[in-house]
Amino acid sequence: MTTEQKLSFFQELINCSYPLYHWEYDSSMNLLSSNWTKELFSGDFFSYIGFHKLIQKHISDGNQSPVILEAGYNLIWIAGFEFRDMQLHRCYFIGPVLSGRDSHMKIRKRLDSYELSAKLRFTIFKTFEEIPSIPNNIVTQYAVMLHYCLNHEKVVSGDVRYLNPYASDKDTAVRTDTSTHTGIWVNEQKLLKMISEGDPHYKEALQQSSSLSYGVKAEFGDPIRSHKNNSLVLLTLCSRACIEGGLSPTIAYDLNDYYAKRIEECKSLTDTTNLCSEMLEDFVARVREAKEQESVSGLIQNACEYIKNHLTEPLSIKVLAHNTGYSEYYFSHKFKKEMGCSVNDYILQNRLEQAKLLLAGTNDSIQTISDNLSFSNRSYFYTCFTRHVGISPSEYRRKNGKL
């Protein structure tokens, strides 16, 4: 079968369940064909709202994975890319889709707030009424299938990217309509076990769990609020699993508080999706690190935990040795032997890691971060950060800032 035949067959299968349409673009994002006939979303709509720029950046960054694009009002499209000889040949949009069962109600309320003529308001809402609401896990599966049709290459749902031209971060859709919880608990336990073991293959279990359930079955009138709630549930479960896996409870609770705050700050569904991915990666990496230190004595583990919990306070070998009841010489020698680095280097490494979190996740000034982490002055902080991270604090914030 040719690519065109595969796509035609694929859309026929989709349309057995949902009325979706397609748009075909060349590599320069010039429209070649579409079976969408209504005025809304026609012409240069995708370029006007910023989809073309998002896709061009996605491709120029070396990505080939399919994406889900959000246009506001819980409205999304799937975008897949056909490559030939490693070069973009065609881009295909499939949609439109509404990402929550309450989306029609929200759109009606929003239209009522505008001073539109009754005829125009009716025309717009009539178009939106015909747009299907599809569960997020189904939309993601469609994106995976579209990629296979275009490139004969298998990807998993975790490879699908979520992009939003309006939000500072991301957006995704969450609602599904399952009537049973069959199999959810087993897969949830499998996922949590892998997280508690620091298993990097946890994404496979996560994919299986998400295909069975979208999370909390409650209507809040807002898909973003629902996704935040689901993210908070996942955060709580994962932090407890990490404690069982050997991560310090203090560290796990601190991370729980940190990510809970960031979840609440998310402004779109894509925000929460990408934040959850980052959160899981962080938890699993920390559990692996904790397990690698199982051979470290309790005395040194306690010292490490004390350091991580007091990064904003003055720290020294004298203070740490005093807490353990040993001499400074014995403590520093034992620490370096078991940890592979000096006490001062370990303190610096952890302060820089904390600085990275603060640079990316807060609006605190660099001077404030330097002072709070007990660096002697801003210049010294800049020098240490640049030497160990490879870029300056300001450059790191520019590249990784979440706010």
Automatic annotation (TrEMBL):
The keyword Transcription applies. PROSITE patterns: HTH_ARAC_FAMILY_2 (PS01124). It holds the Pfam family HTH_18. The keyword Membrane does not apply. InterPro entries: Homeodomain-like_sf (IPR009057), HTH_AraC (IPR018060). Keywords: DNA-binding, Transcription, Transcription regulation. GO terms for molecular function: DNA-binding transcription factor activity; sequence-specific DNA binding. Residues 301-399 form the HTH araC/xylS-type domain. It comes from the Bacteria. This is AraC-like DNA-binding protein.
